[in-house]
Amino acid sequence: MKTLKTILAIVLLLGLAACSSTQSLQEYYVDSAENPNFLSVDLPVSLLKLDKANLTSEEKEALGSLKKMNVLAFKKSNDNTAAFNIEKTKVKAILKNQKFTELMKMNTSFGKASIKYLGDEDAIDEVVIYGDSDDKGFMLVRILGNKMNPAHMVQFMQAIEKSDFNGEGFGEIADFIKG
Question: How far is CA 24 from the centre of its chain?
Answer without folding.
Answer: 11
